[in-house]
Design brief:
Number of helices: 2
Structural class: alpha+beta
Strand content: 25-35%
Order of helices and strands: HEEEEEEEEEEH
Helix content: 10-25%
Distance between the termini: 136 Å
Shape: elongated
Largest sheet: 5 strands, mixed
């Protein structure tokens, strides 16, 4: 009986662990969308694609492939790519998919295998990047994603030199989920962030001021304290006067009769 309970608990834990992953479904091509068969080689020549439009291109290992797409406020975009190796390779290679905004600022990925490594015997490698939700506004100094044109760059970052230039087949797809244009930071504060745990007491009458003790005065109260700047200033002035008189007596010429 205990074994069955433990098994059921384990199955439940596994199911709970897999639930968030299952919620992030991979993007699928839009019905009737035209397949794009080319890619750019820089930001200026990036091929424009739309969400749900599949991409299938042939390239060479070492090429930098660029695409661009339009992002509106409230959307969450997910980029998936698969690189297939028709010919055998001599070693492992590391691939990366980067997304930049209109100001060429690299946007962080919240999920997905952004820089996977394909072994020497692997026939393909899958890449992915889920962007943050596009915000309708942001501070000028922040790097938050804003509406506009975004750029995708697919490239290889590490590979053996003999594999440079080998043919590859690339499949890429951009998915978009609209979550509304309102800012996710908007809301109302239902309770104080730091509750007051030391409340004060209500005064029913005016408080009575405490009596002030009379200061003791004597005849020497007007004299400055020993070591004060007034004492040192006075002593310095006297010494300067004495030095002046002595110096004058030593340097003056005697009068002739």
């Amino acid at each position: 009986m205990r074994t069955l309970i433990r098994s059921a608990a384990a199955i439940t834990a596994v199911g709970l662990a897999l639930t968030p992953a299952a919620a992030l479904a991979a993007p699928s091509p839009s019905p009737g969308a035209t397949t794009v068969t080319k890619a750019g080689t820089s930001f200026l020549t990036a091929t424009t694609v739309t969400a749900g439009q599949p991409v299938q291109v042939g390239a060479s290992t070492g090429d930098h492939l660029y695409w661009s797409f339009r992002a509106d406020a409230g959307q969450v975009h997910e980029v998936t790519a698969t690189v297939t190796f028709p010919k055998p390779r001599s070693g492992a290679s590391t691939w990366t998919v980067d997304v930049f905004d209109g100001l060429r600022r690299r946007q962080a990925c919240t999920a997905g295998a952004q820089t996977p490594t394909a072994g020497a015997s692997a026939t393909s490698v899958a890449l992915g990047c889920t962007l943050r939700r596009v915000r309708p506004w942001a501070e000028p100094w922040s790097g938050d994603p804003l509406p506009g044109t975004y750029y995708i760059r697919l490239s290889v970052t590490d590979l053996p030199e003999p594999d440079l230039g080998l043919p590859i087949d690339v499949e890429m797809l951009v998915g978009a989920t609209d979550e509304g244009g309102a800012s996710g930071d908007d809301g109302e504060l239902a309770a104080p962030l730091v509750p007051n745990t030391r409340a004060g007491t209500v005064l029913s009458a005016e408080p009575t001021p405490e009596p002030v003790a009379d200061e003791e005065t004597d005849l020497t109260g007007w004299l400055p304290e020993a070591g004060s700047r007034w004492v040192w200033t006075t002593v310095g002035g006297v010494l300067a006067a004495v030095a002046g008189v002595v110096g004058f007596g030593l340097t003056r010429r005697p009068r002739r009769p």
